[in-house]
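Request: Have a read of the protein record below and say how the chain folds.
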Amino acid sequence: MFSKACEYGIKASIFIALNSYRNVRVSLKAIAKEINSPEAFTAKILQDLVRHHVISSTKGAYGGFEIEKELISSVKLSHIVNAIDGDSIYSGCGLGLHTCDESHPCPVHHKFKSIREELKSMLENTNLEELALNIKSGASFLKM
């Protein structure tokens, strides 16, 4: 459903949020290792997240990636998905066809439409704080 880059972006954002709660900036190397992603690919993903104001970066000896604690609850999954994959997940065809709409639906168009609407709602109503706190409490896990 999400691109590999988007999956890594979500995992990276959660990992950064968890560390930001402890006032710890995390390095590219630490993030790539944690989410099991190549460093160069992770760097590109993090650049997109910084450019879209999902995370912030600081250069230098004490640099790294972080999210201001006060902002973690306002970062929705939809922000991460839009930063990396755009909004095509909300309008694309369930079968990947180029021409699929209400007047020329694919075989799964009407069923996929409701799934897409539920997905949009979930992404817009789920924030990083909720995900990070679930991991911190042991209710969910991020390790691969």
In short: The first strand starts at residue 56 and ends at 58. The mean pLDDT is 92. The two ends are 18 Å apart (CA to CA).
